[in-house]
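Forwarding these from the shared drive since the link keeps breaking.
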Amino acid sequence: MTMMSFKKSLIASCVLAYCFPVYGQAETVENLDKIVVSTDGEQRQSKDNKVGQTVKTSNQLSKQQVQDSRDLVRYETGVSVVENGRFGSSGYAIRGVDENRVAIVVDGLHQAETLSSQGFKEIFEGYGNFNNTRNSVEIETLKKATIQKGADSIRVGSGALGGSVVFETKDARDYLTEKDWHLGYKTSYSTADNQGLNSVTAAGRYKWFDLLVVHTKRHGHELENYDYKYAQEIQTKIREKADPYTITKESTLVKFSFSPSENNRFTIVYDNYENRSRGHDFSYNLKGSTLNAIEDALRHTNDSSKRKNYGFSYENYSSTPFWDTLKISYSEQKIKNSARTDDYCDGSHCKDLQNPAGLQVKNGSIVDYAGKPIDLKYDDVNDRNYIVGPNNQQYDNQYFNLKRTDQTWFDCSIFDCRQPMTVYKWNGWYQPYTQETITLNSYSDDGKFAKYDQYGYYAVMPSAPGYLEDTYTQRDLDTNTKQLNLDLTKQVNLWGVENNFEYGGAYSRVRKSMTNRTGYRGDHAQWWASRIPTSECGLSSTTYADAILNCPKEELYSFLIPVKMNNKSFYFVDNLVVNQYLDFNLGYRFDTIRYKPDYNPKRDPKLPDDMVKGFVPVNYPYPNLGNMPSYSDYDYDWQQYSAAVDEYNKKKAANEAAEKDNIQANIDYFSKPKKYTKHSYALETGINPTDYIRLQLKYAKGFRAPTNDELYFTFKHPDFSILPNVNLKPEESKNKEIALTFFGDVGFITTSLFRTDYKNFIDLKYLGAKHETNSVGGQARAVAYQYYQNINRDNAKITGIEMHSKLNVGYFLPRLQGLSLSYKYTYQKGRVDGDMPMNAIQPRTSVIGVGYQHPEELCGVDLYVTHASAKKSKDTYNMYWKEEGKSDSSVKWRSDDYTLVDLIGYVKPIKNLTLQAGVYNLTDRKYLTWEFARSIKPFGTSNLIDQETGKGINRFYSPGRNFKLTAELTF
């Protein structure tokens, strides 16, 4: 037996050895023949479940060792997580659509959307400069997660086109059911990403007050792909090893409540979450393929996703003619997704700091490696200057520079500017330099720098720049939300029919903006690095090399205009129970969404001028201005020529002022306010012909309003120009589903058929080439601009079948009470415009589960076997296949079929302690998921592989066998 096999056997053996002896003891105390254990709620909810909905409680999340969004849907067929390389996951894929088309909501608040415009993705996403992802949530703060497959705009409004994932955070009341205080500590470790978790939960009640505090910190690194430890440390797209990142996630949830009576409750909420990743983009395709001994600039990443929410709520439980429960809540949420990229060398052998000849400054003067005056020699045979360095090695002018003392500022904090300095005088071509002594005599205004004002004298310095250059970009995407909600419930019995009403409304104001920072600066300056007085920073004669240390530069701009969105909504839901055989769920929602551009040139980052030209013609006051007057045109009459030049400059200034005014006119033109109104509805019918059969029929409508970038994004370049489109229609979905369930003490089995029709899909369309005109109506450039625009395409359709079942083995064999078998299966297919495959559809997937739960929850073990079929070429679409010269439109690199085995178990050796262990991919299968395969970009610089050979694809494979260990202590 290998050591790995021993570890696997040990986990299972320890859990089972503990469970069954304890279970045997418990069996002698009481008769368990009629006990049905179902801690996950599946058996209890099988009759009441809504079609296409899965609810995971905090207990289930803990039981499955869920630590992120990937783990959340690991055993959910038909749902997957969208992968986005350097920036991690980006929302979910459900029913053939993904990212912004699947709503993500935390405590009633929509989370940040991606910049979903295909034009934006075409230009920027392939280059890894934007954290264009959907932010996540800390699992340890969750009370429950609800995954809805199919249109769900009744609950969450815009965005729930293919479904929704709704999170609800914990409350002190969840812990204080039996006593007035609770204290818990949880720690875990995962080998897949070396992630360590520490989480503390404290809850308490005193008289009318209660408090909950949950603080969690996770620290780890990148997800280790298969063969991670054996892959070479190389760069560019052929890298087979995941790029190195250090990832820290920190969350704090605080809820403080005041309940002056049983029917009134006031709550203040603070919810702060930050996900930060720092590392290197070694797979970036514009770097060298090897990591050399003499190091060049490396691509450093510093990305973050921050969410902060302040909230207040009032709850009332007094029964009135209008409500049984009432809740008013107000929230202010700020989300910032940032991506910072710095290119600099940070090793000990950076080439820009090399000084192989060992030159140094001693007592304020430049000397050689031995501290002696530099002996500059001349080789007249080869016409070269050289110096002698360590080990008597000759170093020619490849390793040092001769800098003119009349053009070089000497920093008096390094050099002794008042003392004589040894320099070298130039004596003409093909002549050796002679050693001279000078005293610097020309000082800067602040007296910190000095020169020697005579020509022909040179100082010997290393040829390397002597500093580390840092060029950086930082892209910030901000989504700030203020939202007011009113939610009420009322139960009424009308004519013998039980009605459970839910109704209310919401008003929200959301501002979305982008801020880009690009700049450069110098660091780690050596004694010979070029320095200048700050007074010369703005001079045209100042070079980049001179300015980088003393004059760091940063530009602030944006590619998107800020937009305010106001959303008003009203909803009404009625759960009608006619009798034990028939029930209905009726829902209606009305949304009004208004977009209003909010660009203020005095407050907001500047938009590049080229992006906002050409929509409105410039009204030049002097359209036929022509060229600058020539001296010869006035017969060399200086007076007439000067007057003509002055007149020309006045007219030119007037034309330039008109161009500046035209920029704002263009912004006003394409950033017109936009209003959408949408009706959403849902009808679900439940028919119960017997006590063990339930038939459910559902029809629901969802929608997604265009995002601000889909409406207003514009970009101008001859190769690729984007026009805004304020006439876009909302995307719509109509979901039809039928489900048949057999249930009872033995378990349940549900089979459902579904069809979702999508309408008005937003996509990018090529409009053709167009020549720009100049101020006098002529052709501005020889090259035509290639124009694209977002449009609404025709319909899309997806159909499929799902199964979900569970069998309680203890029903047949009482001695195996607590043992269960489960099965999930999803198959779906779909097309856009009748024949175009939908890449967001997951391959056919099934999950078989075998679980044991001790009747008193002292221990448990679950075995999951997941099988995913291969993604067929006919079900994939490469939108760039024509540009790449391919023979067909299928995606070349796809996922094969694979089978995974996971084993998770827990024991409670004492009442307050839970120990848990899990082994994932137990058989150490090498596999590639479809979500990772489709994240490979066909162009750009990031997330690439060699499309011809497949080199680099191993970087996208999932981890091999890995483990998770968890311990939780509660009081």
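-- next protein --
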Amino acid sequence: MNSSTTVWSIAPEAVYERLETGPQGLSGEEAARRLQRYGLNELAEPVQRALWLRFADQMTHFMALLLWVAGILAFVSGTPQLGWAIWAVIWINGLFSFSQEFRAEKALATLKKVLPAQVKVYRDGTLQSVLARELVRGDVVQLEEGDRVSADLRLVSADSLYVDVSVMTGESLPVARFAESAQIREVVPKRGGKVLVHGGERALQDPVKAQEIRNLVLAGSTIATGRGVGVVYATGAETEFGHMAHLTTNVKREPSTLEVQISQIVRIITLIAVGMGILVFVLASLVTHLELKESFIFAIGIIVALVPEGLLPTVTLSLAMGVQRMAKRNALVRRLSAVETLSATTVICTDKTGTLTKNEMTVRSLWIPATNHGQTLTVTGEGYDPSMGKITFPPGKDEKQQVKLLLIGSALCSNAHLIHPSGSSRWQEMGDPTEAALLVAALKADFDLEQLQQDYPRRREVPFDSRRRMMTVVLDWQKQKAGENLPFLTSGRNDLPWENLAFTKGAPLEVLRCCQSILKAGQVIELTPGDRQIITEANDHYAKEGFRVLGLAVRADHENLLEASPQTLEQQLIFVGLVAMFDPPRPEVPEAIARCHGAGIAITMVTGDYGLTAEAIARNIGLVKEKVRVVTGDGLTHLSDAQLRQILKYRSGLIFARMAPEQKLRLVQAYQSLGQIVAVTGDGVNDAPALRAANIGIAMGLNGTDVAREAADIVLTDDNFATIVSAVEEGRTVYQNIRKFITYILASNVAELVPFLAMIFLNIPPALLIMQILAIDLGTDMVPALALGIEKAEVGTMKLPPRKKNQALLDRALLLRAYCFLGIIEAGLGMAGFFLVWGSYGYGLAELQAVTTSILHHTADPILMAIYAQATTMTLAVIVACQDGNVFACRSERTSAFKLGWFSNPLIWIGIATEWMLILSLMYFPPLQAIFTTTPLTNWQFALLLSCPPLLLGAEELRKFKFL
């Protein structure tokens, strides 16, 4: 443990003095001084592998090793130009891959800073949110369920506090934490029953670990349930987390499923390339009777031509660009595999509050019991500004007192805070928006919240949890005196107030189950079945209009409320009234839901809210239109897994209400067992299992807990459902873009292969030389493929059904289009250009076959070799020109290029310009002419080149028109 080990052995009151702070926290100036003294609360970045080692990885993977061997063989066979060219391919692709991987890592590192960890601390006497890295020794931190602890803390108060310390100990179950001082057990050595401690000696102390001390909460742990306040005693490297060196080592990133699939594709194509090289070697030796050396060189060329060297770096960049685009649309991707999975999502299980709605709660109505079916009061105004609305109290004294009790109890049974920054007209909430709305309602009734908290200090709290759906506080009620113009309940002993009073707020029906009495017309009377019916009807009336409703009850008796168990404390309650609040739906959600339905994605609302409220909101936003079936958490417990699967498979219009977190997990697993790809949203600590189990876990960035964000694949920085739909669209776009540039690359490989097959079967010289193939690979498979990898979403992307889970990236349709259509057209035009050049000099097929041997053996006269050089240059230029048309053809598998906009992707034109700068350099720059055996083309030949892009693009447009 660190130097502040004794902080756990002192009383909570002494902790402040020991750490030189106070209950109100540090001042801003003192915090700044300590930050300067102790440094930022962060650990040093883990040491990463040296850049040169990471670059070496790009030079030694499977494809690179194959090309290194091919280069060596080229040198051995006496063709050093080919060897150097092959090695140039390795270096160029290695540099490109390294730069793109480095760029992708930088992009992800930048995105991590979008949602820096925040903590709630007391500074200058007020609760504030500050960056976790700015915590200092002596800061007073408020802890709530779902918070990730960012520094080592000594607790000074704890209410039902349980902490997940699995990061430190591996213990899966949360452990209880308390504020009381702890003492280490002394070990007294004995022998034969005789104590061996002599006078003046101290007993040994039992060894103890910091994570085992009950009043310490350590960095890296998370708050499972409850609330507490702790004082920071260690930050950064001084924390126990910082001392565990193995936790700071770099974790190797696992490849995504898409990257694995791409790697498999590369291996398959590479094996095909090797097979084709061997086939060409055998046929060239046996059929065309080439020398072994020449056949060997051609075989190497075939292998190099067909190996897709640029595929992996282009995939990496496409994913990185997709992640950046999603970040701009408020979706922070934490795992690259999520981008691919989004394209196959079939079901979205979404929360209601804050995701489908604005999470801007406003109390609109109050209800108290009365003689005839209750009394309703309207609350005006919207948002968190209390000056924008008011509450009109009822005229009767007893009713007025009861409304005040309802407002005071609701406000004091709350952990939210309202902040009114100086110089700003806008009020801000800190904490749960529902509880903030209760504070605003109390302010509208002219209550002073600070004075109420001073008059009725909290003595105990039983925090809200998703099973009880209630929260209870015990208040010191002794300052309440009879005759004051405030709501009161007297103890029946000379009208003296109760010593303590307990307020319970929560789901109305849950609160009602715990009530035996009711406050009506100033009297506490027995709660009858008729009263229960009236309260239930009032709750349902609000819920059907889309209101979130809370019930409030009070307990006042002679039992010690501070010592009673939580179960006992929340029994024999007195029902006070209902608070109805409205959270308006986000205006963009109906359109987003319609887009999901058009894309074949089912949406299921999974909420902890009341069923009727959920149904009203669902109808309002267009989630359900016809018959609705609301499945409650209680109802779900009575369904077997088989019955649940049947409901999910055959029923529509489903809404799951009053769902516990473990039931959300069960629902996700049921959908997955039906073969669905499930995206699920969550914000609470108990949502983490469902977020991890889902194919795509989506956490809330604004109101979500740290635990939920850590478990998720994607974090929404605006908590908006429409952002989920945008992320799905981006995921589909990335997947489509990868298919586009794979098609583009494979089509050119066919055009590179056919000249050698023609050489073997037609007994003609190869229409393309090995060095020219390398020029095509370096000139056409780089920038244009890169441009296809960053294409924007096509119109109609969200009108297509989700792709099947088991659909291969390299499927039959892609192979047929690339190899048997686009590739054949390129190859045909390339061979036609080759024959046209020979024909212009009077050489037909027979004449060409007659001079093939002399050309292959380099014994032909210079004029004949000059014609051959021009013919191969023409083939090279035709393939590049066809690729210009191919890049536009590959921009969409279905949509016409004329509808996409010719200049909507400027990088395509940069790629085309790059291609032609390279080709013209090969034609007119003498050193390159000598290396690549090229020569300038004539005017009529350039004119023919202009016809190649429209010919290929026109054929593709005709295919789309006829067959799609």
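The CA atoms of residues 894 and 960 lie 6 Å apart. The mean pLDDT is 81.

- D.
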